[in-house]
Design a protein that fits this description.
Length: 241
C-alpha cells in the first residue's frame, strides 16, 4: 500500500464551515492540507499550478458553484462535495464525485468519505506505477500441456480448492489448472481484474450486466460477496454515467 500522504485543498465560502473541514483534514494522518480557499476562482488558479489529488468542495457558492468548478476538474483531482443542500446529491454523483457530505457532518462521516477517496487514489497510484512491460498474458499448466492465456480473452476465473477454472471468451470448456485463486490473482493486473467473491475473479473489461448483486456472463451469474461489495461498487461508481 502506498503510504504517501494525499495532497488536499478545501473550498468553502463560509469561514466556520471551512474551519471545521480543515480541522478534520489536519487530524487525519493520511491527508496533507496544502491550502484552503473561501473563493473558488482562487482555488482554480491554485490547482492550475499545484498538483492536488483530493478536493473537499462546497457546492453553494457565489461566482462559481462547486458543481461548475467540478465540471472543469473532471480529469483532475478526486472530489468530495460538502453542502447543506441535500437536493444537490444527484448532480454530485453525476459528476462522479467520490462522496457527498451533507452538513452538518461528523468526523466519522468525514473519515469514511476520506478513506473511500484514499482507496481510489492508492489504487490509481499503484496502476500508474505498474511497469508497462508487465505483459498481457500468462502461461498455465493444463492437462499435461502449457496454455498461453491472453488476459483480454478471460471472462472470469473460478477457484475450487487447489484448482482454478479459467473461462475464456469463445470457448465452451474452461481451462483447468492446478493452482489457487490467490496465486493466480497475484499474477493478474489489478486494474483489469477484480476478486468479487472468495471463489471468483472477474475481468472488468467483460462486465456488461449486473443483476441483483450478481455479474452476468451468459447463463452464469456470479455473486458479489459482502467483503468485496464496496470495492466493486467503487468500480461501478467510477464508470457510472
Amino acid at each position: 500500500m502506498n503510504t504517501e500522504k494525499i495532497p488536499v485543498i478545501a473550498v468553502d465560502d463560509e469561514p466556520l464551515a471551512l474551519q471545521l473541514i480543515t480541522g478534520y483534514i489536519r487530524k487525519t494522518p493520511f491527508l496533507d492540507l496544502r491550502k484552503e480557499f473561501e473563493n473558488p476562482v482562487e482555488a482554480m488558479e491554485f490547482l492550475n499550478e499545484e498538483p492536488v489529488e483530493l478536493v473537499f468542495l462546497d457546492i453553494h457558492m457565489p461566482d462559481l458553484t462547486g458543481t461548475q468548478m467540478a465540471r472543469m476538474l473532471l480529469n483532475g483531482p478526486k472530489i468530495i462535495f460538502t453542502t447543506a443542500y441535500a437536493n444537490y446529491a444527484l448532480e454530485g454523483y453525476r459528476l462522479n464525485a467520490v462522496d457527498y457530505l451533507l452538513k452538518p457532518f461528523t468526523y466519522e462521516d468525514f473519515l469514511q468519505a476520506a478513506q473511500k477517496a484514499r482507496r481510489l487514489i492508492e489504487f490509481e497510484r499503484k496502476e500508474a506505477a505498474r511497469p508497462e512491460s508487465a505483459g498481457d498474458f500468462l502461461f498455465l499448466k493444463s492437462e499435461y500441456k502449457v496454455r498461453r492465456i491472453n488476459f483480454n480473452e478471460v471472462l472470469y476465473i473460478e477457484g475450487l480448492k487447489d484448482y482454478v477454472k479459467v473461462f475464456l471468451k469463445g470457448e465452451a470448456k474452461p481451462v483447468l489448472s492446478l493452482s489457487t485463486l490467490k496465486n493466480i490473482e497475484s499474477k493478474l493486473p489489478s486494474g483489469r481484474f477484480m476478486r468479487v467473491h472468495r471463489s471468483f475473479i472477474v475481468n472488468l473489461e467483460h462486465v456488461n450486466t449486473i443483476e441483483r448483486s450478481r455479474i452476468v456472463f451468459g447463463n452464469v451469474r456470479i455473486p458479489v460477496g459482502d467483503q468485496y461489495k464496496e470495492q466493486f461498487e467503487e468500480f461501478l461508481h467510477r464508470n457510472f454515467l
